[in-house]
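Quick start: read one record
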Amino acid sequence: MVDLRELRHLDLRENALTELPERLVGLPRLRQFDVRSNRLTRLPDWVVEMTALEKLDVRWNACEPSPSLLTELERRGCVVLL
């Protein structure tokens, strides 16, 4: 597989995803992550390990991130669009 550690923007919107693959946690420089308009029912806790994340868009999914995940992301200045 291609080395994606330098990836900064990932757009996975409108792909009918029901879950996020855990291998995405290995994207240390990811700043913008767009997963809107999928079929997600939960947002995995490992999203908090994306320490460079500045914007997370989860609109138009059937999920509500956990309060602790939201608190941590917002504490770091990450904009979370629900």
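Residues 51 and 81 are 17 Å apart (CA to CA).
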